[in-house]
Write the structure tokens for this entry.
Amino acid sequence: MTTRMALSKDLDAVVHILNQSILRGNENGRLATVKASELHDWFFEHSPSRYPLLVTEEQGEVVGWLSLGAYRPGREALRRTAEISYYVRQRKKRQGIGSTLMKEALRICPCLGIKVLVAFLLEHNSGSIALLRKFGFERWGLFPQAAYIGGKLVGQLCYGKLLEKADRV
């Protein structure tokens, strides 16, 4: 397994993996699958020097991805906080791919000036909760009944991790 920055050739695989999670209906807030053209701008906005998009490959196949993104873009006071998202190909879950991606993200965050990571997930996403806890993320909040999925209201959780405590900017 290798983890690297995403390349333009990875767009279709990233979309495919995201759509797998949408079709399962319980892992994120999207209710309809997406096309590569819909994520094109988002994909290419990721910069290796600020907010990278990472992929993990196994035998030439993208099996998972992780993105770092601005938290509350345009609010300069929050520039040291990034939102983290990650997805793993369905048939590759529980094989350490999420951990591989998370280790790499945590390794590079200090080089990017990121001091705080936040993750938002639906409250019943036990796989994500386990991964976040494994890497020292703590539950920072709950937005009760924030999502309506499958005829039910479900909460959205916020998990966070301080990567570096700082008294000054």
In short: The domain at 2-162 is CATH 3.40.630.30 (Aminopeptidase). The two ends are 36 Å apart (CA to CA). The chain is about 30% helix and 35% strand. The longest strand covers residues 138-149.
